[in-house]
Fold each of these.
Amino acid sequence: MTLRKLHVAVLMGGWANEREVSLMSGEGVAKSLEQGGHRVTRIDMDRDVAARISAAAPDVVFNALHGVPGEDGTVQGMLDLMGVPYTHSGLATSVVAIDKQLTKLVLGSQGIPFPGGRIVSTEEIHRQDPLPRPYVLKPVNEGSSVGVAIVTDEANYGNPIDPSAAGPWQQFDRLLAEPFIRGRELTTAVIDTPEGPRALMVTELVPKSGFYDFAAKYTDGMTEHVCPAQIPERVAELCREYASKAHLLLGCEGTSRTDFRWDDDLGEDGLFVLETNTQPGMTPLSLVPEQARHAGIEYGELVEMIIGAALRKHSDKQARDQASKAARDG
């Protein structure tokens, strides 16, 4: 697709754990838009962001923020109040999708398989293990594998976990405890098109050591991306099916990425969804641009597709608002 020439404010940075990743995503988007002839205003998120967006008066905001407050509904609500079109998912979707437990409740009730588990307090895990080892502890509302710990009998965390041991319990009061799913790390991107959401393909992520944590995601050479994944076609079909279903059920817009663990010893029954990311990275190492490229969609086209989805959403909302006003006015 080709957009008319726009003034785009690229919102990036902020103060979340993923600030540096967001800056890389935002800069990639900004440069791509400039190369396409668009006018770009770069905005590093701060407490005066509403005033700065208002002063810039863009046609649309490209939300390249990751984590809180750019991915949890806070920025989305602000932009809704300002009446400014913006990319990616809206307020309600963002609130639910960033919370791993809420996502599990919404999608699990619709037949999408998730690992078991429950929310635990840090005080509890220092008294006893919440699940049989091995298990995973992760923050309820962080992305990019920030603060994930795999607790095994061999881990240097102690038994029970010692409060002085380095881990997410030192940063967060509440954690999600899940059984550890052995096997392989898979992910599938979905992008919105004028014809509807399109699941791209499946990538397998093979860390050179350890597991696919924050460092493995964003350090060049630490993880091999096998795209498309060398897996049975039926498992790939299920990944695309679950990713598309998650995108629709959560109400994602623009693009999303759903992450999986697959225990290949169990075949189709070994596939589990871990989370759906409503604001996937747009860095040189990011998975959505990589899958899009394999599907014949270059980076600049992908950026314009995401913006096009945002403008369609805004236009549809304006039409609904006008219809509601006409109905009220009689």
Amino acid sequence: MEKSAAVPVFEALSSGVRLDVFRLLVRVGPQGMVAGELAAALDLPATNMSFHLKTLTQAGLVSSEQEGRYQRYRANMPLMRALIAYLTEECCTGMPEACGIPLRRHDVSQTKPEFSMSDKTYNVLFLCSANSARSIIAEVLLNELGKGRFKAYSAGSHPSGAVHPLTLQVLQAQGYETGHLRSKSWEEFARPDAPKMDFVFTVCDQTAGEVCPTWPGQPLTAHWGFADPVKVEGSEQRRLDAFSLVQNQLVNRLRLFLSLPLEKLDRLAIRQEIDRIGREPVDTGA
């Protein structure tokens, strides 16, 4: 990298807000975030976020891709690695190891992956009363979005015994595998031999008000309420739209959850963050 290319990058990052935006995009990794998610995560007005994203994009620090009605933004990590190499290539007369800086232009490819995180796999249990719609959708989405970092499960306080047909239809339309899904009791996850949960989220108000079993592992808990699509009446298309809406709402909250640097936060801070996510508005209707 030449000085003329480095200067615009530094200028773009000179704003504290833009620095926060870029660091958050680095944290979430290749999945990226849409502008609304970034604004919510950083508690910024949407108009301000658009301005800062435009500046970062013009500097090459952020790339964007059209996704339906939204733009998804991702950090340009190759550019950042090049910037770090530019800053350190002549450190200590070309010997950065002398001051503990591991990066040089010729060995950037041998540095640690840009999205370092804990090796821990987090177990997450989603609960609703019937375990036929909301909790099932959440299980499938997190297992896909959090591959390699999260293992999701779902259960119900009063399981219906079958996954709702429209749940399966919505998930299958998005290409998700559904053959393994089943409606099951939360008692399965209270047994001593059950997987130890790190997080338990209730996704319906009824379950949130019930006395839960004692979960092995003392997981962190939070309530993420969503309207029950099963209760929507009318045409099949109207009912299907209700299931699709819940899926989109779950995606938004799960992406906020996935953006949390869990390995860097203490238990109290994580609890505050997951509670905050549960209070975020979920309406994604036009």
Amino acid sequence: MITHFSVIDLFLQASFLVKIVIFILFFLSIVSWTLIIKRSMILFKAFKHEDIFEDKFGSSLADLFKFYQDVKKCKDKISGSEEIFYLGFREFIRLRKSNSNSPEFIMQSTKRSMRIVLSKRINELSTDLGFLATIASISPYIGLFGTVYGIMNTFISLGGGTNHASLTMMAPGIAEALVATGIGLFTAIPAMMAYNYFSTQVSKLENSYNIFLEEFYSILYRLVMLAQEQ
């Protein structure tokens, strides 16, 4: 019989199935925190990269072709709006050479190319968010399963050994079963908070990318219209 209710003692006294449930929850918690740290670093770099690129782009509007050549030199390291700019401008240049008399076709194809880049980038930033949401949603139920089994097991063992089950006799078994629910919540709550936070951050980046795409599209549209008037 457990004489004090430390978490370690409760775990050691738990049934085999409850221990398995707790191990699963600890594993999910480790996976969850790994994803949280990894995704935090990725999003931090994405926001930082976006700020740096916006400053560079704002000071390079006078000569977009030169800026394009500079970006091209490090094209393997670009992302976000910089990648939208690079691939969009590359498509724009290519189409102008072969379809100089079709401005609408040039602009539609250029915008489609930039939209594809944007979609791919958002998909990359959203990687693992679905798994975090899954951990957040299933962890409490896994913990609840361990608790229900532990309490049921406690009642069965008491029912077979005595006619007068007291609270003192039942408390250790119930306490060890409730540990599973506690760990389930411990796993689920950070995962859900991280999922909501990361989803908001990805939405902010997507909005930033969309704003840049539309602004850059307007710049290219003016360029192609000016070329038609000349």
